[in-house]
Fold these 3 entries.
Entry 1:
Amino acid sequence: MIVVNKPAGCLTVAGKTPNPNIAQTVFDAIDVDLPTADHMVVHRLGFDTSGMLVFAKNKAAVRGMNVEFQRRKVNRVYEALVVGHMAKDEGLISLPIMRDYQFPPYVRISTDAHQRALLHLDAEEVGKKILEMPKSSLTKYKVVSREQFKGYPVTRITLTSISGRYHQLNVHMAAFGHPIVGDRVYGYQGEAASNGGLTDKELNELVPNLNRASDDLQAAVAEAAKDGHPCIHAIKIGFRHPVSKSYVEFSSESPF
């Protein structure tokens, strides 16, 4: 196994753009018993997410780690700064996620209205992923501290993605009213649907939070953080080693 502290602004694997990627860098630098860098990959971190990233060095390790991820036995914890001071010290966010047919390839919170909208779409035109059934998603959060970011209130929290869905942490925090600082996709007037794709009425019904950050505060923090990366870091990963079968854990401090 190889564990890397990935910097923000770097791809896990090669993409369509010529940005550097960690997998190829590791593959070129270390003796690996696999044909290509892609074969090393057992999970990924987003382009703007920093932190603990694990690769496998041989087929046995790949198989073992794939089983651990499928069984959700891998313990992954993230640290993030979110907009506003959160009222509760800890809690759970349980909201189903669907692919966003209006803003692909992003995701949004699934509702009956959005599911009905899919009935009029053609899979050949929008792609099969858009028409996938909504996926139940559960995020656990815990407050570390309530701080200031360039003069604005923010909260440092740990996040555990219990279900491990695509962009789950980002869209859940946006819907909860505390988007991740510097998130230009799911944050204030980002590329994805605002507030996780929920209307004001849906927010009150599905995600009641009287302490959610106001639009003015979200706008101010978005402006203050516009030149940096989103403030989210994979601070810890723990798993049963696929060969020794012993539990191992790795961690690194957040860069923000």
Entry 2:
Amino acid sequence: MRRFSPFAALALVAGVAQGTAYELDAAHSGAGFAVTHMTVSKVRGAFYSISGTAEIDEENLAASSIRVVIDAASIDTGVDRRDEHLRSGDFLDVESHPEITFRSTSMEAIGDTELQVTGDLTIRGNTREVTFPVTVLGPIPDPQGGRRMGVEGELTIDRHDFGVSWSRLLDSGGLVVGDEVQIDVTAELVSEGAE
């Protein structure tokens, strides 16, 4: 399989224009998470309402940007009662903070298909800078005449940094909910009207 540098991949998705805008294909994108429960297992879930845009300058990657918006109320762990608790003021407080957002501030190529992305992550109204590696997949032409590129990334955050601090202490000394949250993002970006 042919490998592209991130610059080449972004250039193909962008076509010939610089600073081209792309839409995140919500039907083929998602943000998942996992957090330790009672020190012995992990609860996994995902957010199923996600949108975003990317502005790509293939000749100056540093000038490129990505913005992602997640509907916090779309959290789904497969258990309705738990999901309602996660939406409450104990956790995400979706009534006061309906969106989780990420806005990139810099991108750097670190390999043939890898980028280092730094940006501001906002959860529950608290913003922290995060940096994580991203793998670029593609690009490929799509049946509608555009081009698609996949992006995959993972990072781990301390939920307390974002004001998500509810938990209880077990008799054994551990916490009901772990401090670290593992996040994985898979996004499909489409360049509308590319030839």
Entry 3:
Amino acid sequence: MEYYKTKIKNLFLIKFKKITDKRGFFAEIYNSNKNKKKINLNFLQQNVSFSKYKNVFRGMHFQTGNLSQDKLLMVIKGEIDDFIFDLRKNSKHVINL
């Protein structure tokens, strides 16, 4: 896995390596031992969504204080627009990944 810092504090881009052969592919998308060396993640929940149609808006999420969450996003097929808004005081960042 490769880890990239972004302009927003505590926002990282993680690229995983895909091993391909005639059967398909395998990829390790998360490994807590490897991730702990780079970033501190504590996943308590994983969700999967599937959209039948193009241009589906899934919603906006906002957490503060002890309710803040780590988010791991993975696109299996196709592409997405994922927008991150840093609402912390004095932040000047809006990033479209």
